[in-house]
Amino acid sequence: xxxxxxxxxxxxxxxxxxERVLTAAAQLxxxxxxxxxxxxAASRRSGVSKPAIYRxxxxxxxxxxxxxxAHIDRLVPLVETGDSAHDLVxxxxxxxxxxxxxxxxxxxxxxxxxxxxxxxAERLNARFFAPxxxxxxxxxxxxxxxxxxxxxxxxxxxxxxxxxxxxxxLLLGHQPVDVDSCVHLARTAVQGLLLTRxxxxxxxxxxxxKATGG
Length: 214
Description:
Number of strands: 0
Structural class: mainly alpha
Order of helices and strands: HHHHHHHHHH
Distance between the termini: 104 Å
Largest sheet: none
Helix content: over 70%
Number of helices: 10
Strand content: under 5%
Radius of gyration: 24 Å
Oligomer: single chain
């Protein structure tokens, strides 16, 4: 009787420890970026032992990715209104708004770590990019089903067209990551993805030879 009862109590305790660690890690990221988010600092702030943290996250970058992804999941939700073009543009706007602040700095640091640290790119993709792309892909498919979006366009290509410019600007710094310009880019891209596009005026027919004297 005692063994199963202890195991039942262990899972809530582990979940509580994980929440404390992620809260501490998110605070450290806000205060000093990825460099400040060490396992030792997270342990001190959360009160959870370093061995317990290492059992869940093998290194500090893994902890930083988990904390950052959970933070963005809460603050940048994917909202659906039934208008796919609007929803896609708004998703870009929300992401651009958060990338203007310290979250953008942390994101760039995590991408840099993904380039330099073996295995980090796979972890960043699995925890941060892949779930958001899956949600956007589902949104796209619902837009196709409603007859709003072009079914011949590859959803992953559409996502890259819509969200790529914001990340590109953030990482290179050649243009500002302000909401208005990122929304303009997204709206420009989405016009080519709609099933029914605005029709351009038909060009005027060329003048007849008689009218030109030819």
